[in-house]
Amino acid sequence: MAETTKTEKLTGSAKVYKQLREDILRMDLAPGQPLDEVGLAERFSLSRSPIREALVKLAGEGLVHVLPNRSTIVSPINFQDLPRFLDTLDLLQRATHRLAAENRTEEELAEISAAREAFLEGSRESIATNNSVPHIERNYDFHMAIARACRNPYLIRYYGQLLDEAKRLGHMRFQFKSQTTDLKPEDLDAQHKQMVEAIARRDGAAIEELAHEHANLFRGQFMDYVMANHTQRVAVTY
């Protein structure tokens, strides 16, 4: 009986985690918005225990923030720190991707290639449904497949944290681009394709340059979004 209860609780926690994570990434839950355990328990028809477990997991990913009074909010987006954040993302992306080209095995190359194909499918789904989450998640998977091949656990860990934090920025960028341009999966994949080719031929210099261009492309497109929207409806911390 106890085992059944535990399974049900884990299933409930996983359900809450998945839904809240998607709500946060899609900005349906705005940065800075309070997350009330009682209200969430009513929404999901669950006790507070699985709600709390889901919030702890989300906090570990940096998507929610626990305040000193133990209340929980959706993590704010600090636009003042954005240039430093993007600089760091650029540096770690260049380092992980160059080392991956130099150190990768054939098995890791196959994993990277498969992750690129999944990214293409995720982008097609996102464009068709106007839901950025598949595109964002598969983009994360692609770059982390490359990072794992670099064989440096410290770079992998910190790069992964930055990619997690960048997901909401990626949503805003995707929504802005989908409203202002005719998005095509092949265009979104163009630099990824070049990255896989550089890794396949073990060209560290080429992929480092591609990784830098990729980070700068993200920076430019996101700043276009900020300028067009004047950061309205986004919580800004100072």
Automatic annotation (TrEMBL):
CDD domains named among the record's database cross-references: WHTH_GntR
InterPro entries in alphabetical order: GntR_C, TF_FadR/GntR_C, Tscrpt_reg_HTH_GntR, WH-like_DNA-bd_sf, WH_DNA-bd_sf
Keyword Coiled coil: no
All residue ranges annotated as the HTH gntR-type domain in the record: 10-77
GO molecular function terms listed in the Swiss-Prot or TrEMBL record: DNA binding; DNA-binding transcription factor activity
Claim: DNA-binding is one of the keywords in the record: yes
Alphabetized Pfam families for the sequence: FCD, GntR
Residue ranges of coiled coil: none
Keywords per UniProt: DNA-binding, Transcription, Transcription regulation
Stated name of the protein: DNA-binding GntR family transcriptional regulator
Organism: Donghicola tyrosinivorans
Highest classification ranks of the organism: Bacteria, Pseudomonadati, Pseudomonadota, Alphaproteobacteria, Rhodobacterales
